[in-house]
Design a protein that fits this description.
By secondary structure, this protein is of the alpha+beta class. The protein has 2 domains: about 130 residues, endopeptidase fold (from Nostoc punctiforme) (Alpha-Beta Complex), CATH 3.90.1720; about 120 residues, Phycobilisome linker domain (serine acetyltransferase, domain 1). About 35% of the residues lie in helices and about 20% in strands. It contains 11 helices and 14 strands. The strands form 4 sheets. A 7-stranded mixed sheet has the order 7-9-14-10-11-12-13. Strand 10 and strand 11 form a beta hairpin. About 40% of the residues are buried.
Length: about 350
């Protein structure tokens, strides 16, 4: 098994990803913020951590459109597919969030894209539909309360949307008229009254966060956490500095795991992802599917990470621990590290 994509270095608000076939050789970072990439490596991308936390409509659009990689046009999607919001959804007039709001078919798909844009921010149902108030990322219930779409763009006369269960599949870019939106039964927004995306109202669950981090040490690295490492990861999650996906990325693309992975069979590797992200062992059908996905690739770590991290089950796991799963992250990126704690060739433990 060969590792191709790895995290080379990260500076305060940026993450650099590089690629080379073979085991990782990590870059060093100078005091002025210049990463010295080892010979033979190719810089793949540079991500600003701050961009992952902006709350404007442009940022919401970018995060939603990034999900096309996971849900391309024509992906089968029906009422058998679903997504769950735990303590996020507020019916109009209610001050209490619904505990376990399940969206099936088109609703579930819109919820997944909404989570990609807004993490675990509260979702408020609004029954009086005002076209001028509709924003990118809002979920609108159209067609006489029979179909849900999520807004991608809006102009004076129409919107474009993404939707699931449109002819039993995922569809991107359909245009819907202003009059059809104004006739909608209701919409769901995760912006506050000023137009900025809301922040999660739930208080971080310290015990849940520690359980989450301990599971990453145990299931991913196969060991107990060291006190300093446990405290650091828990602190970052509790403060909102990183999301659940970003935390998991830090473990799966650490030198410790990348050095461990070549010793694992494909079945063992897949089972680790099941335990970390889904809290269970792989079922035979699922294991067979993921083993076929990584059978002939050097990007196995990245393929598995994206597939599992963007799953509804992982979002539910994070929510149960009081953690925001967060937006989709392009592997191997989006872990905010500082010059004092970036991953280097001399660091072999998380």
């Amino acid at each position: 098994m060969k590792m191709k994509k790895i995290v080379a270095a990260a500076l305060s608000a940026a993450v650099i990803s590089v690629a080379q076939t073979g085991l990782p050789v990590f870059a060093d970072v100078s005091a002025n913020g210049i990463a010295q990439i080892a010979e033979g490596y190719e810089v793949r991308s540079v991500f600003s951590f701050d961009q992952l936390h902006t709350s404007d409509q442009s940022a919401a659009y970018d995060r939603i459109m990034a999900m096309q990689a996971s849900y391309p046009e024509g992906t089968p999607w029906s009422n058998n597919d679903s997504h769950v919001w735990s303590d996020i959804y507020y019916s109009e007039g209610s001050s209490t969030a619904c505990n376990g709001y399940v969206g099936y078919g088109c609703v579930g798909f819109a919820m997944i894209l909404s989570d990609a844009a807004f993490g675990n921010a509260p979702a408020r149902e609004i029954r009086q539909v005002n076209y001028d108030a509709i924003r990118v990322g809002d979920i609108v219930r159209v067609n006489c309360d029979t179909h849900s779409v999520i807004i991608l763009t809006k102009d004076a006369d129409s919107v474009t949307v993404a939707e699931g269960n449109y002819n039993h599949s995922v569809h991107w870019g359909r245009r819907i008229s202003r009059s059809a939106i104004e006739a909608a039964s209701y919409y769901v927004t995760r912006y506050d009254d000023t137009g900025a995306a809301e922040t999660a109202s739930n208080t971080p669950d310290a015990a849940g966060i520690e359980t989450f981090v301990r599971s990453l040490y145990s299931d991913c690295l196969g060991r107990d956490p060291d006190p300093a490492g446990l405290q650091d990861w828990c602190s970052r999650l509790a403060s909102g500095q990183i999301t659940g996906k970003q935390c998991a990325l830090g473990f799966f693309f650490s030198p410790e795991f990348l050095n461990k992975a070549p010793q694992l069979s494909d079945a063992e590797l897949v089972d680790i992802y099941y335990r970390v992200f889904l809290n269970r062992s792989a079922d035979p059908a699922g294991q067979s599917y993921w083993m076929s996905m990584i059978a002939n690739t050097t990007d196995d770590i990245s393929i598995l990470f994206t597939g599992f991290a963007d799953s509804a089950e992982f979002a539910g796991k994070c929510s149960s621990y009081g953690i925001a799963a967060g937006a989709h992250v392009d592997t191997p990126s989006a872990v905010r590290l500082t010059p004092a704690d970036y991953i280097s060739e001399t660091t072999d433990r998380v």
